[in-house]
Amino acid sequence: xxxxxxxxxxxxxxxxxxxxxxxxxxxxxxxxxxxxxxxxxxxxxxxxxxxxxxxxxxxxxxxxxxxxxxxxxxxxxxxxxxxxxxxxxxxxxxxxxxxxxxxxxxxxxxxxxxxxxxxxxxxxxxxxxxxxxxxxxxxxxxxxxxxxxxxxxxxxxxxxxxxxxxxxxxxxxxxxxxxxxxxxxxxxxxxxxxxxxxxxxxxxxxxxxxxxxxxxxxxxxxxxxxxxxxxxxxxxxxxxxxxxxxxxxx
Length: 250
Fold this sequence. Notes:
Elements: H1 6-22, E1 24-28, H2 32-44, E2 48-52, H3 77-88, E3 93-97, E4 116-119, H4 124-136, E5 141-144, E6 156-160, H5 168-179, E7 186-190, H6 232-249
Parallel strand pairs: 1-2, 1-4, 2-3, 4-5, 5-7
Antiparallel strand pairs: 6-7
């Protein structure tokens, strides 16, 4: 019977669509990359999601985050993403975790219930904890490396962490994961040399932060404010989603 996933079923087959509908994917970090992961996966027929993020939509997110509009500024990203996903597939099961994932609250998450884990968070300590927890439970995990300060979306690719080059975040992650005995990790990364953003304090979030007063992690506390585009994080998220669909249906 014709349905919203019929065109996808022409490529993946009925069994592939059924696998996706029964799969549960946890997306840690609902931002420029994570938002597009969620968008593509729900449109592909993945049936169950856990969205983990405690950030709210900021005016400066409108340049790259798929759920960010003038109407959603100030709202929680995970809630806005869930509403958007349910408009696409009302039958999707979506669980929200309005928190920042940290090593300190990692025990609150049962990784054994996930079929796939997406690491789209910014902090190294959180990324390592997600990866270690997923690999301990033998759950497939894919990690997003740096998408900020990049302009060429065509340089993005899927690779093993130990095959990456040029990306500063990947360099740090290689070092930390090697210390922990991690032999392999699937990542999306760019080998483009990062562009140094201009230091214009008149438009800097560091001096003109407009986050709500009760925001936990404000721009003024960040080490640096990277430049970003509409297309690089989007392509990174879509590459991740494509890899997950292939892995879940093969």
